[in-house]
Amino acid sequence: MGFVHHTQNPNGYAPGEVPAMLRAIYAFHRYVNGWNDIGYNFVVDLFGRIFEARAGGIDEPVVGAHAGGYNLASTGVAVLGSFMSAPISPAAAGALQRLLAWKLALHGVPAEGSVTVRVNPAGARYSRFPANARVPLPRIAGHRDGDSTDCPGDTLYGELAGIRQGVGRLAGRTARATLALAPPVAAPGQPPTPAPSTAPAEARTLVGTLGFLDGTPIAGARVALQGRTVRRKGEVVHERTLGEALTDPAGRWSLPGGRIEPGESDTQAVVRETREETGLQVTCGALVGSVERPGLRGAVLDIRDYSATVTGGTLIAGDDAADARWVSPADLAGLPLTSGLAETLTAWGVLG
Fold first, then answer.
1. How far apart are CA 189 and CA 193, in angstroms?
2. Are the C-beta atoms of 45 and 77 separated by less than 8 Å?
3. Which CATH superfamily is domain 259-352 in?
4. CB-CB contact of 210 with 251 (8 Å)
5. Domain boundaries defined on the chain
6. β-pairing, 134-138 with 114-118?
7. Cα angle 124-127-128, degrees, rounded to a multiple of 5
């Protein structure tokens, strides 16, 4: 969620005065309040300019110090000025709407409606509600909605309904991604045993979904898993892409998923992947055929299909599948398949 504040600075300032005003806010928050930085995550001035107020990266979930009891669940945006009786400028209103639309959508949060937030005991002394109380708040709230204050001023508080509508129009249809580490898969009949602490880390599969907030899946979307290193309080950010995937028709994706691991032969990969994805033990047979398909970032995927004989196990859907079952060629025709799959398998003589 997002909290809207005002800084209570006098209005009527010139553009060139804003940097000094921000430094004064920093000095007060840092050396009088004893905080690590400016409490707000962002500041918007009356000329429509947006400033990163608290360091750490504007697209990161940086915890502010702007709303006691709710900082862990929110981002804070302050409009530079005092708005008890004066409205904010059209430029500031537009910037505020654009910023909140981007920031909330980035974290998969809708702009409209409400959310229930637990009051953190560490900041409960500022709150209108007792520690650990579960408080329903607007997704875009005024500071006074949660804490004992008249912030963001009477006039700006009255403008929040229109700001929420503007944010909703700009945000459009918000999507949300999930990420989870799939549990290790043991061979059928052999429960997994904890590895000794000195053993090398076992390769695990990351799985997730991508969809709109109404539950509609997003198919064919690129998902990139990145490692990020942030230094100098967000001034230096290094990003490295660790892997990429495409979502399936149900919006699901997985990494690494369906590839030969370092040091594996094709035969070993077939046996492992079949066990992980279906629960079946197989003996790998002859190569049936292979095709090349375009991958991400110009890569070419070499996809090889092998025949296999089931020797044991129980058919069950793996960690990134919704279903696993035996079907006849006639039933296969009624299932949603990758384009060209049935025709290719028929040409290879796999299907009758």
1. 12
2. no
3. Nucleoside Triphosphate Pyrophosphohydrolase (3.90.79.10)
4. yes
5. 2-172, 174-189+204-257, 259-352
6. antiparallel
7. 135
The residues, ordered by sequence, that sit 6+ positions from 304 with a Cβ below 8 Å of its Cβ are 266, 287, 289, 290
- pTM here? 0.68
Q: How would you classify residue 34: left for phi > 0, otherwise alpha for psi between -120 and 50, otherwise beta?
A: left
Report whether 46 contacts 11 (CB < 8 A): yes
Q: What is the DSSP letter of 17?
A: G
List the chain pLDDT tens, one digit each, 352 residues.
999 999 999 999 999 999 999 999 999 999 999 999 999 999 999 999 999 999 888 988 899 999 999 999 999 999 999 999 999 999 999 999 999 999 999 988 888 899 999 999 999 999 999 999 999 999 999 999 999 999 999 999 999 999 999 999 998 888 888 888 766 555 445 555 454 444 444 456 778 899 998 889 998 888 887 777 777 766 677 777 777 777 888 888 877 556 677 788 999 989 988 888 888 999 999 999 998 866 555 667 788 899 999 999 999 877 556 678 898 888 887 887 766 788 888 899 888 6
> Fold identical between 2-172 and 259-352?
no
CATH 3.40.80.10 fits 2-172, yes or no: yes
- For residue 250, how many other CB atoms are within 10 A of its CB? 16
